[in-house]
Write a sequence for this structure.
């Protein structure tokens, strides 16, 4: 099978912006082309574009987003499709980019993830996100994602002996990392004292969905990220000279029951486990080989649970690893060096692409102040629905 | 590269239905599984599902449609993505299905196309369809698809000496074919006299967007279609024994300017030409090898124009071929044996999948009264935007 690598990354500053959705996606794409060495602003080797987004139709009221982007970028007649898999749309777009090249249909693929969340504020935002719930068995009953995460957190607290402080520890770590990431939405340190002290917690970290408080979940952000993928056998011909070659060594995804209440063991995230196993198998690695990981901490509990389901830590011990500082930048298994969804931000469709962009920077040794020494293997988990549809990506520096 | 074939087809009766969107998609999927020989109603070989739909988000207000379908079909943990490329979403989903298998990531892919148009009636339907126009340069100015098609038709009439009757000839042919297709929306013959006689044309065939009348464009339909794709090297192991093997010999797609006014030659459909050329090249054929074609006649002018851009007839002569009956069931180059979008119906995301389902039936010799004798090579063109993003598929019976 053809080897596929990532030769360019682009990333807007996550946060609030007035840039229109399509232009925001193009901004990230142009940066990815520049990064790959196509300094003219146009890379005429691109023969396929995949755009991962959840709200292009529902929020922007635009269809054919991918071909609009191709036209704006002036890379016609490149093939183009929009991909939707809830908040895992970006991870799905990367998987499709791999397939397009490995199948021989394309040689050079531009993968973009983007979301303009500013269009849906307050309850409209919560409602938009809730459209990923089951349309008949969940959504009509008023369930929301924070409500699900609250139930899930309480259950894991009871099962594994965690407490609220464990969530805050993850939050503090990710805020610290985001301070070192110029693209992060919230580049502001948070002290454990500030968000856990019972004397003023009601003001500094108010309850959202018991037991979850504001700092136990991600903010609402706009943003886009992009990757330029190329077949290894075309890299020299196209003049993409980056060293090392960052290879997409493994891609995997898996679905779980769309109705969360149907799960046999509700503390499990089966789709995380299966997608990671699939990606590891394809890459010929085990969890022990992972040097750096970007996990989908839309809620802090998810970083802990995913660190277990991916095999980075034994089941029920993810929070202990975080307590011990093992997942910090200076730990033995750094997680969410980018700041994670918590502090870097979570523009839904952008997130999966943003995660892999961070891994590329880490594996190239270009992560600056947040660099993990000698990172050679990276893992990302992009989480759709409440674990309904999860993608895993493994990168190797070669 | 791995060879990929189609071993199962499913197709709902196009028209109006009260079946919920996801259930409608599952109905087509179950039929495709049955057709492939998985009579239990569950095919546990499926490892990837692609759902082509334009309105799942915008109309149904559902995200994660693909994983909801996986769950309903009880084929977890199959991978799942929703694909959007306007009315060419179905063709795009087939292309991705090919990529998934050819890349080795999947062995057996379920491709579904579906749309529930009943949710958007009247002006809401026109507006929904118009979201495929450029969000800044076209949509805000009130342009609609029928308006574009009217301008395009007038220009081609002036350029190539066509008249309104040429559109009606195509319409009459497609209505005749649909009478032989039990899945068609409008199974009713239409006489040329009835829709062209000036004495009563205002009543029987009213003007919609000059020069286009009601019978020069497709109806609004609900519907879904599905295909089961398998790697040839897994066909026997999985027990899919259909003969002949219907191979996806070529897939191609291409984009054109998203803003139609930017095209150098506005009578051309460049993306149709390029996508067909790409698919022919991959299949190792020329237009002369095509035995039967399904072209995207959302407007009757498009069947004529596409029959030229795909090389089936020389430029400027498509309407002459239709006049001579060459594109009828009994002609030497039958087009839209299914009834086409005109009479079979056009549930946007379903159309590309439905077209290929028809070709499979033709190539298997299972098309009943509408069978084209000895059909071995089939071509489909699925048209997104106003030719902004077009997919082409070539099938071969082997």
């Amino acid at each position: 099978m053809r080897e596929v690598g990532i030769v360019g990354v682009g990333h807007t500053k996550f946060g609030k912006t007035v840039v229109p959705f399509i232009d925001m996606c193009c901004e990230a794409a142009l940066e990815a082309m520049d990064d790959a060495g196509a300094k003219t602003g146009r890379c005429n080797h691109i023969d396929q574009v995949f755009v991962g987004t959840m709200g292009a139709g529902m929020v922007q009221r635009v269809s054919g987003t991918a071909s609009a982007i191709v036209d704006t970028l002036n890379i016609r007649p490149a093939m183009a499709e929009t991909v939707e898999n809830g908040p895992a749309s970006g991870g799905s777009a990367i998987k499709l980019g791999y397939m397009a090249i490995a199948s021989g249909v394309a040689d050079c693929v531009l993968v973009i993830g983007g979301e303009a969340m500013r269009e849906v504020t307050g309850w409209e935002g919560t409602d938009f996100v809730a459209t990923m719930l089951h349309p008949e068995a969940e959504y009509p009953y008023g369930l929301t994602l924070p409500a699900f995460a609250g139930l899930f957190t309480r259950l894991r607290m009871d099962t594994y002996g965690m407490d609220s402080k464990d969530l805050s520890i993850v939050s503090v770590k990710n805020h610290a990392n985001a301070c070192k990431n110029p693209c992060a939405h919230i580049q502001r340190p948070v002290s454990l004292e500030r968000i856990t002290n019972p004397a003023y917690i009601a003001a500094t970290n108010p309850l959202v969905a018991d037991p979850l408080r504001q700092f136990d979940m991600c903010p609402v952000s706009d943003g886009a990220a992009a990757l330029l993928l190329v077949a290894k056998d075309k890299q020299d011909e196209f003049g993409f000279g980056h060293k090392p070659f960052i290879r997409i060594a493994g891609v995997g995804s898996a679905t779980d029951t769309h109705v969360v209440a149907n799960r046999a063991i509700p503390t499990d995230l089966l789709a995380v486990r299966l997608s990671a196993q699939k990606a590891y198998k394809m890459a010929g690695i085990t969890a022990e080989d992972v040097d750096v990981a970007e996990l989908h901490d839309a809620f802090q509990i998810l970083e802990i649970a995913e660190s277990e389901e991916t095999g980075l830590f034994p089941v029920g011990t993810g929070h202990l690893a975080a307590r011990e500082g093992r997942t910090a930048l200076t730990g033995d298994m750094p997680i969410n060096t980018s700041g994670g969804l918590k502090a870097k931000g979570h523009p839904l469709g952008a997130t999966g692409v943003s995660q892999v962009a961070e891994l590329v920077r880490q594996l190239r040794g270009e992560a600056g102040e947040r660099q993990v020494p000698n990172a050679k293997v990276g893992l990302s988990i992009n989480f759709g629905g409440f674990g309904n549809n999860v993608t895993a990506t493994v990168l190797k520096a070669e």
